[in-house]
């Protein structure tokens, strides 16, 4: 059987912009996913991340399925996480592929910056406050439903930013007829986060995995435990 351990992608070089300079304006347009990746690598070479600049650069790229279709791998039952670029260790860039009606659990982002851009279809995002944890007492009824704070619908090429400081969220493809594809950047990369039960606020630690890397299906040799959503694996099955 062929090994499915892909090598890191080679990204063509583009004229280097000077990020990290106050007042630098992002390019008006970015013509390809590879060019976008080159800009992102340059931005994240700086020790400080300019959130507005990252969002502006993501907006400057207009989705072209020819750029990213080789990374777009769907599963019949759950959304998938597909690694596109490791960003020299500073971030993970990935495609999330959402079948009709697929959604994530409510989750945090492990203290990372989270950027999201719609490449195909549309997604709905619902945000929540962090659940309050009763301190110094037994939580007998565990009936602490989570408080919703906002809802928004993201359409093609829309961009948004999320972090733990802004709360928790759930993302879903509300369409029952059209799949959706989104581009996500997480910095720094993380391999574990938490998901939350909306009715009780109960937190479950999870590790996150990839369905594919660089366009190749990941060859998982062991059987993972039941997955609440694809690529999000419960570590505490109690
Ligand atoms: Fe998220």
From TrEMBL:
Region (Disordered): 217-238
Keywords for the protein's UniProt record, in alphabetical order: Dioxygenase, Iron, Metal-binding, Oxidoreductase, Thioether bond
Highest taxon of the lineage: Eukaryota
SUPFAM superfamilies for this protein: RmlC-like cupins
Primary enzyme class: oxidoreductase
Pathway the protein acts in: Organosulfur biosynthesis; taurine biosynthesis; hypotaurine from L-cysteine: step 1/2
The reaction(s) this protein catalyses: L-cysteine + O2 = 3-sulfino-L-alanine + H(+)
EC number(s) on file: 1.13.11.20
Pfam families per record: CDO_I
Key word Metal-binding present: yes
GO molecular function per UniProt: cysteine dioxygenase activity; ferrous iron binding
GO terms (BP aspect): L-cysteine catabolic process; taurine biosynthetic process
UniProt cross-link 3'-(S-cysteinyl)-tyrosine (Cys-Tyr), position: 114-186
TM region(s), chain numbering: none
Chain residues that bind Fe cation: 107, 109, 169
Needed co-factor(s): Fe cation
Entry's cofactor comment: Binds 1 Fe cation per subunit.
CDD domains linked: cupin_CDO (cd10548)
Alphabetized InterPro entries for the sequence: CDO_1, RmlC-like_jellyroll, RmlC_Cupin_sf
Family of the protein in this entry: Belongs to the cysteine dioxygenase family.
Descriptive protein name: Cysteine dioxygenase
